[in-house]
Every structure is written in structure tokens, then in C-alpha cells.
């Protein structure tokens, strides 16, 4: 997916303007048109993942007799394919791996069968899901999607360096700045984080930081608040990190990881998808730090994980992450589509999660209220690409517990305020990423926030 094969930070949201009116163009016999056959898109196009998904699909067909045409879709091609398919009245019956902004834009353009979705959730029992995952995929009382899995944004830090310097874990703005200042040197940057304009990874990195300071994109009345004192303070904090304690130049999903893996950064903000790579389980993204030559898993063993950050103006720490869902498009073959989604959340759930456990943390904890069957199974799954091993071989119980509880604590901009569609509307222009880039280059945070807020208002 773009420059990183799995990280969802660069997933482009659907272009709302391109989709306006397409729901009206869809024919009544959309989807497969065959009660015993459905078309399913998955936002995965890596051969090994497609093959693993096809095996699950084959088992579904054997059990139900329903034929499935599985269509892998590259994430950077999803918008275009959806637009053309909606215009032709040829939407699939089910789509998997749909991110929160995409769900909201599909809903805004009336391309979702929410009645069938509600029926599926009722059959699965909402009590078996993370309440946060349900809330983030709901519009008022209407369930828009069936949440499946999540990834969480993390602040990773070198525990060995922190311990040697007697530093506290970097959980607040103050402790992060103190650590960055103490550990920054010509050889090791105190912190690395994304700052590229126009990049969703930059926006998501900053949202992770900003949420914990009470910075919201909009308020409960729907008014844009990115120029609030809380957001200005968050931008100022991030600007200090970038200007004083980071590496020079543009930083993105690849360069930040490269710096941390080379042992040239004391802290980094990335997603859970980094965990198997940090444990040297992927040959094309191996850690290269000096200690890693003798111990490839050195960084995994010597890195701490912070999931929630708190700023001085925040009321409580906040965790940023993504929920990916199964959606049932409007005019789908609702009966076989609902059976397929229910299968993927029951018998097919563990094998689906096992495709990439480091970035597919279950949001359905078990098959009955109070059950932890799925999260227990997740903790034992092997991760990696070229080499496979359980995360527990490299990370302690505290890290695994933080990951499994992450979905219960996720916060996002705009969705709780009923403005989820705004997330999709700003994905093209990326005004927040632009503001982050500007403060990284020395622009006054108040000026950058005001400019971004105006751009968000225009999008709204």
C-alpha cells in the first residue's frame, strides 16, 4: 500500500465529490444478482494474503454452497474502482478491510445496506464486540459496518537508553520532551515522527498526539475547532520535537522506521504493524542497529510501548488507532452477503486475523458475552513474513495486554461529534498534515492552526 506494504496510515479515503449521485445511478440488481453467488472485495493484494483469504472463502463455500468471487483490490486503486462500479450498478456484495473514513463516505453517499448490517450484528451479539469499535462504526443509532479488527498507533522508545539515563516512560508531553532533550545527540535523535505535507501518516501521527491534549477537529455542535488553544499547544509541542530533537528533512513512514531500526532514534511513533519487523521477522525490513548484528531481536526486546499520550490541557490520555470493517453495499445479495460476513466473524475469524496478527487485533473478543476466545487465540498467533514466531517470544505481557485493550480505548476526531464524513472530505487536501509540516519548518503554531482550520471549514 503505497510506500509501505501494510501500514494503513496512507490509505486514501473515498473522494466524496466523485461519489456524489452515484447511489442514484446504481441499478436495483447491484451485486452479483445471484442468490447463490456473491462478489467480495478485500483491500489486500499481496499474493500470500490473497491465497490465505481464498482458503477461508473455499471453506465457506464448502459449508454453505454459496460461491464467492474474491476480488483483491490494491488500496490505492480502491477509490477509482468503487466509483466506476457504483456508476455501473455493479458494486460487490461485501467489502472487507474498510477503514473508518471510507465507511463514513460510503454512508454519506448512501452506498451501504445498514438494515442487513444491523441484522448481522444482532446475530453475532453486540456484547461480544468492543464497545468503542461499535461506536466508531455507528452513526447515531445506525450501525454502518461490522467492525472486524484494529491497529493501534504506538510511541515506541528505547527502554535501555531510558533506563540508563534514569528517565520516566514517555507518556506525557513533559516526559516526552524531557527524554528527547536528554537523549538527543549527534548519533541518536531524541525523536522521529512523520512531517511530510499531504501524507495521511503525518495526520495520523499528529492526531495520536493531539487527542491526548484535548485537541479536537470539531466540537459537539459541529464547529471546526482546530484553531483552539489545545490544538495550537499540540502543534507547538510537535514543532519543538521536530525542530530541536529530530533528524532534518522530510520524515515519513519509511524514513522514521529506518532511523529507529538503525539505532539512530530514541523514540518513534508508528503502528502495531512495526512489531514483527522490529523482531527481525521480515527480511526486507530488518533492524540494522549495531547491537542487532549479534541479536536481530535486540530492538524488540529493548523497546517500550506507549499506547496513550496525555498533554497538559488534556483531561485523560488518549489512544489513536484504526478500525477496519466488513461492509455490505446497498443493493447487495443480502442473504448470502450476511451469511458470508457472519462466517468471517465466526469460523473464519481466527484464520482471517492470523493473516497479519500484528495489525489485526480482534475487536470481537469471543463468541459469547464475556468470552475472550478470540483475543486469547490472537496472543498465541505467529507473526512475520519470512520468519514466523509469536509476539510473546519478543514482547512482554504488558505489551500484549496494551495491544489487546487498545480497541477499547480508541479515540478519533470528528466521529464522536457526528462529523465522521469530514474525515473523508479532508483526506485529499490533508490540511492537518500541512500544518504539521509548517510547524516542523518553523511556522508559528497559531498561524498554522488557523490556516488548517479554515481549510477544514472549506471542506466541511
Describe this protein's structure.
The protein has 460 residues and is α+β, with helices and mostly antiparallel strands. The protein folds into 2 domains: 8-151 and 322-396, 3-Layer(aba) Sandwich (D-Maltodextrin-Binding Protein, domain 2); 152-319 and 412-459, Periplasmic binding protein-like II (D-Maltodextrin-Binding Protein, domain 2, 3-Layer(aba) Sandwich), CATH 3.40.190.10. Helix content is 42%, strand content 13%. The chain contains 21 helices and 13 strands. The protein has helices at 16-19, 22-25, 47-64, 78-87, 100-108, 114-124, 131-136, 159-165, 173-183, 200-211, 229-245, 253-261, 274-278, 298-301, 334-344, 349-353, 373-380, 397-409, 421-425, 431-440, 445-459, and strands at residues 37-42, 67-72, 94-98, 138-139, 142-143, 146-158, 267-271, 303-306, 319-327, 361-362, 382-383, 389-390, 410-411. The strands form 3 sheets. Strands 1, 2, 3, 6, 7, 8, 9, 10 and 13 form a 9-stranded mixed sheet that branches. Strands 4-5 form a two-stranded antiparallel sheet. A two-stranded antiparallel ribbon has the order 11-12. A hairpin with a 5-residue loop joins β11 and β12 (389-390). The protein is globular and about 65 Å long.
